From TrEMBL:
One Pfam assignment: Acetyltransf_7
Designated name of the protein: GNAT family N-acetyltransferase
Cross-referenced Gene3D superfamilies: 3.40.630.30
PANTHER family: FAMILY N-ACETYLTRANSFERASE, PUTATIVE (AFU_ORTHOLOGUE AFUA_6G03350)-RELATED (PTHR43233)
Record lineage: Bacteria, Bacillati, Chloroflexota, Chloroflexia, Candidatus Chloroheliales
Single GO term (MF): acyltransferase activity, transferring groups other than amino-acyl groups
Domain (N-acetyltransferase) ranges: 12-141
InterPro entries listed in its UniProt record: Acetyltransferase_Butenolide, Acyl_CoA_acyltransferase, GNAT_dom
Tree of life domain: Bacteria
Family matches, as SUPFAM superfamilies: Acyl-CoA N-acyltransferases (Nat)
Organism of provenance: Candidatus Chlorohelix allophototropha
Length: 150
């Protein structure tokens, strides 16, 4: 069952059919973490995630995307609110909806990566890695730029 949350003129919906991949790609393709991301990749990522779309007058103005097995682990990514809608507490409301979602309770680990929003995420219980030497990754920060040249 999909969740829907209301706050004045804004709605957050987890209904996959309501997510606007074109609007999401327009923002993500200029973000520091997904610069140049193709629409096809955005569409695939949305289909395989729990998405919290933020809407104003039926237009998508934000997103929080959770990659999860809904039992043990979740990764929070692609969190944004369009610039013209910032300063209204929407990112806080978006995160409140994410961390309170029924499918994300009782997880052993919930992680994210951020360059500049540590204080926002700390409000919701996120902390620096307890034992960073145990974590490993494969990272390809320029993958969308490289693939666009092919």
């Amino acid at each position: 069952m999909f969740q829907e949350y209301h706050n004045g003129e804004y709605i957050i919906s987890t209904d996959p059919a309501k997510q606007d991949a074109v609007a999401i790609q327009a923002y993500l393709s200029r973000s520091y973490w997904a610069e140049g991301i193709p629409l096809e990749i955005v569409e695939k990522s949305l289909l395989n995630s729990l998405c919290f779309g933020l809407f104003h007058n039926k237009l998508q103005v934000g997103l929080a995307r959770v990659i999860t097995d809904r039992a043990t682990y979740a990764y929070l990514g692609d969190v944004y609110v369009l610039e013209e809608h910032r300063g209204k507490g929407l990112s806080k409301w978006l995160l409140e909806c994410v961390v309170s979602h029924p499918d994300l309770q009782g997880l052993r680990r919930f992680s994210l990566a951020t360059r500049d929003a540590h204080s926002l995420y700390q409000r919701y219980g996120f902390t620096p890695l307890k034992v960073p030497d145990r974590m490993m990754e494969i990272t390809r920060p320029d993958i969308y730029k490289q693939n666009s040249n092919i």
